[in-house]
Design the sequence.
């Protein structure tokens, strides 16, 4: 429709007498309105296409980029570990999270929850507003965040984790085997108490070695936060072949 | 708008179609590489952390 109107207008000046015979004034106004409507329609179509492209970008392309980057960074950490004992450099990441329920394989864990860090398809441990404990600390809460959608979407399946599921954290020398014992399917994004050393909302009252996973919910939005709590069950020394603990086999 | 671009492209219909396709690809590239990464943090879709 738009094309026809505009083409019609385009032919007008050079066109034969048929249009010239019509009252010039009314015809010109009408064609001007037609052009305005046409441009407006094209703008609407353009906006629609832009939004569709943005969805493709958010839900697909960012994953492609992030997974590529995460792979690169994970390989680097594995390489560092392979160099053998000695001072451990944790700048590139402190270890890997394995949660069979998430179906994401190994997830690299790095320091901090800055957007720039998490956008690389990794999980980050909190440095603020509540400082995370480390898995090897005697007591405390090891608190992690990762994307639910896009940028690797490492915690996309967080709602598939249930009480009793194993979550394993792998460092160079030790496997930390955690068990999920509580979850909070929806909480405010300002609820920083979930990161407390003793997360009271999970039902625990005594100090212990906890793990907290946080991401956004419902899917495709950032309106609320989804929290999963796990507690350390046991640790296992990493052997020469890096044999995975029974929970992952 | 698009009609205007089409009329100002050189060549016959096939050449114009090819140039149009290249233009579309160029626009998509610029969007994915520069515009969307810039716009994304400004939109409330991807905050995952709890914060004060």
Sequence:
């Amino acid at each position: 429709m738009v094309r026809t109107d505009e083409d019609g207008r385009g032919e007008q000046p050079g066109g034969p007498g048929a249009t010239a015979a019509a009252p010039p004034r009314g015809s010109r106004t009408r064609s001007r309105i037609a052009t305005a409507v046409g441009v407006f329609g094209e703008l609407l179509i353009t906006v629609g296409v832009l939004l569709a492209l943005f969805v493709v970008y958010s839900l697909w392309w960012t994953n492609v980029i992030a997974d590529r980057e995460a792979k690169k960074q994970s390989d680097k950490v594995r390489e560092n570990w392979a160099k053998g004992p000695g001072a451990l450099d944790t700048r590139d990441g402190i270890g890997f999270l394995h949660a069979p329920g998430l179906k994401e394989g190994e997830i690299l864990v790095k320091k901090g929850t800055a957007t720039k860090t998490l956008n690389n398809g990794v999980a980050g441990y909190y440095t603020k507003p509540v400082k995370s404990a480390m898995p090897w600390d005697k007591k405390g809460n090891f608190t992690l965040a990762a994307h639910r959608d896009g940028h690797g979407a490492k915690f996309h399946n967080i709602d598939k984790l249930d009480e009793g599921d194993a979550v394993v954290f792998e460092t160079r020398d030790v496997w930390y085997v955690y068990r999920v014992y509580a979850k909070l399917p929806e909480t405010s994004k300002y609820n920083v108490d979930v990161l407390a050393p003793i997360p009271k909302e999970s039902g625990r009252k005594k100090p212990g070695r906890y793990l907290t996973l946080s991401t956004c919910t419902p899917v495709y939005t950032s309106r609320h936060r989804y929290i999963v709590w796990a507690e350390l069950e046991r640790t296992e020394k990493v052997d020469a072949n890096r044999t995975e603990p029974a929970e992952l086999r | 708008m698009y009609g205007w671009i089409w009329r100002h492209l050189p060549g016959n219909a096939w050449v114009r179609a090819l140039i149009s396709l290249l233009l579309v690809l160029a626009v998509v590239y610029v969007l994915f590489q520069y515009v969307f990464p810039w716009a994304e943090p400004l939109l409330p879709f991807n905050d995952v952390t709890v914060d004060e």
